[in-house]
């Protein structure tokens, strides 16, 4: 089967072939994905899934998840009951307004929940029948899609305000009524203004998790914790500068501040002062506070206004530069060289997806710093040779975190997600990086061991859930790692005699 897949030279063709296989023979699909995870992960998920979403109407064969449109308002519970599987444990839901770094793709964003749940199964061992991908269709503001004859969603402008809020509230209530208190709802690729509101509104009443805000934060923090073993510093010794102040940027910044606060005993307001953010209007400073969105306000520090990233780098002199802007080629040669002038080992994370939107490439980061940078990206880059040495770029991929986190929450019967669980996941992932990985310049472990990594993350998340009194599966198992491994779905055929 892998031989056949390798005959496709165009990644999108390989994606279509894999999706056909998933429909035709689910067990074989997962067997291939588990055994060839490093090769197939970029096909099933970023960067290929981005192109698949853009062309979803053209490659559409049959529905792979549940579409709930505005026309079903008042009937969402009935629609959920139409899904054939009853024992749902994980729902990944999107409204398609901010797909990766590609913008509003409306209903065509279904590729994201489908891809994420494939990884919940392959990497985290959640049963395929327990996974439900959902796209909420409230329209699209993408004119190209509205005029596209192959667009599969509602051809109307997006619902907003009270109409949108009421529709989402009905959905969340219906999910809880139909599947119970312990179903994990993962919000995926919602626009900033909705993402923060939904997470804030439902975190105290539902088991909810936003991968763009919390998953990204947890995986990046894990890389930073691991990097300290190479640098011989603590997180509190660093100054952080972000390009991008949306869901990912502010989510990462908040988790870093929380981690430093717990390590040093300093207040979180104090630890935030080591973290600076640049948005489309420049450095976020106190003089801009009144005009800032609420989630940016905690990061407005006292400083003169600075319009450009290069100016901010020279003024702040960060030791860590993190890109979450969704805009490619923004870490220019001048920016990266500036980082290298006042850091012996600059830490550069170009996290935007897909590959075309990465702030810089691995080759640029290593070349412009003369091989001194520690580099990681959101999408994969090939190894880079520089002056006779081979560098292996790390991938700060959320796939390290959310499958293990989800398994840990399900295994313990968690009823809520808390930041301490995300910190536990980060620390568990960082602990999996070996000296051999560090020698190759990696701050993340290889994906070949991902199911073992996920089991360890699940055990740590489960332990924290029990510690916080948020677990409902009692009594607590003695060996949580063994428990996690025993819960994992394995795509094998049963023997019948």
Description of the structure:
With 497 residues, the chain is of the alpha/beta class. The chain is 45% helix and 11% strand. It contains 22 helices and 14 strands. The strands form 3 sheets. A 7-stranded mixed sheet has the order 8-7-6-9-10-11-14, with helices on both faces. It has a 5-stranded parallel sheet with strand order 1-3-2-4-5, sandwiched between helices. Strands 12-13 form a two-stranded antiparallel sheet. A hairpin with a 2-residue loop joins strand 7 and strand 8. Helix 2 packs across helix 5, helix 3 packs across helix 8 and helix 21 packs across helix 22. The longest helix is centred in the middle third of the chain and has 21 residues.
Write a concise keyword list for the protein shown above.
single chain; 497 residues; alpha/beta; 45% helix
Q: Termini, distance in Å? A: 27 Å
Anisotropy-based shape:
globular
Helix fraction by DSSP (H/I, runs of at least 4)? 40-55%
Can you give the mean pLDDT? 95
The SS-based structural class is alpha/beta
**Per DSSP, what share of the residues sits in E-state strands of 2 or more residues?**
5-15%
Radius of gyration in whole Å, from Cα?
22 Å
Largest β-sheet summary = 7 strands, mixed
Number of contiguous helices: 22
Question: What topology, given as strand order, has the largest sheet?
Answer: 8-7-6-9-10-11-14
**Annotation, overall tally of beta strands:** 14
List the uncertain runs: none
């Amino acid at each position: 089967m892998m031989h056949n897949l390798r005959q496709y030279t165009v990644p999108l063709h390989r994606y279509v072939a894999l999706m056909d296989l998933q429909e035709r023979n689910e067990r074989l699909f997962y067997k291939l994905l588990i055994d060839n995870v490093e090769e197939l992960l970029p096909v099933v998920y970023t960067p290929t899934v981005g192109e698949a979403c853009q062309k979803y109407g053209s490659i559409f064969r049959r529905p792979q998840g549940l579409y709930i449109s505005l026309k079903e308002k008042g009937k969402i519970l009935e629609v959920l009951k139409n899904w054939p599987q009853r024992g749902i444990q994980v729902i990944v839901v999107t409204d398609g307004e901010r797909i990766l770094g590609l913008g509003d793709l409306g209903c065509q964003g279904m590729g994201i929940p489908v891809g994420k749940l494939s990884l919940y199964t392959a990497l985290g061992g959640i049963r395929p029948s327990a996974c439900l991908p959902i796209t909420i269709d409230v329209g699209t503001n993408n004119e190209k899609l509205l005029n596209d004859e192959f667009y599969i969603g509602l051809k109307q402008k997006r619902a907003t305000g009270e109409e949108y809020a009421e529709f989402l509230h009905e959905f969340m209530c219906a999910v809880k009524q139909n599947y119970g208190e312990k179903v994990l709802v993962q919000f995926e690729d919602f626009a900033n203004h909705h993402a923060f509101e939904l997470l804030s509104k439902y975190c105290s009443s539902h088991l909810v998790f936003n991968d763009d805000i919390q998953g990204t934060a947890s995986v990046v923090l894990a890389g930073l914790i691991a990097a300290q073993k190479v640098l011989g510093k603590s997180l509190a010794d660093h100054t952080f500068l972000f390009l991008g102040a949306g869901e990912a940027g502010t989510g990462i910044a908040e988790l870093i501040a929380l981690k430093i606060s717990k390590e040093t005993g300093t207040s979180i307001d104090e630890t935030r002062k080591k973290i600076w953010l640049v948005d489309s209007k420049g450095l976020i400073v106190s003089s801009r506070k009144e005009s800032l969105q609420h989630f940016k306000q905690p990061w407005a520090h006292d400083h003169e206004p600075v319009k450009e990233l290069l100016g901010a780098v020279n003024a702040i002199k960060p030791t860590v530069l993190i890109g979450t802007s969704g805009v490619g080629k923004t870490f220019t040669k001048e920016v990266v060289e500036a980082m290298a002038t006042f850091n012996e080992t600059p830490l550069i994370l170009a996290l935007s997806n897909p590959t075309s939107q990465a702030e810089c490439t691995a080759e640029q980061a290593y070349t412009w710093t003369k091989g001194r940078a520690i580099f990681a990206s959101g999408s994969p880059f090939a190894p880079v040779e520089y002056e006779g040495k081979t560098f292996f770029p790390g991938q700060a991929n959320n796939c390290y975190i959310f499958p293990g986190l989800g398994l840990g929450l399900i295994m313990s019967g968690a009823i809520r997600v808390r930041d301490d669980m995300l910190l536990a996941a980060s620390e568990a992932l960082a602990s999996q990086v070996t000296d051999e990985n560090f020698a190759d310049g990696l701050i993340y472990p290889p994906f070949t061991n991902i199911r073992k990594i996920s089991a360890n993350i699940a055990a740590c998340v489960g332990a924290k859930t029990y510690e916080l009194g948020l677990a409902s599966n009692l009594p607590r198992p003695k060996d949580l790692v063994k428990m996690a491994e025993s819960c994992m779905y394995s795509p094998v055929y049963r023997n019948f005699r």
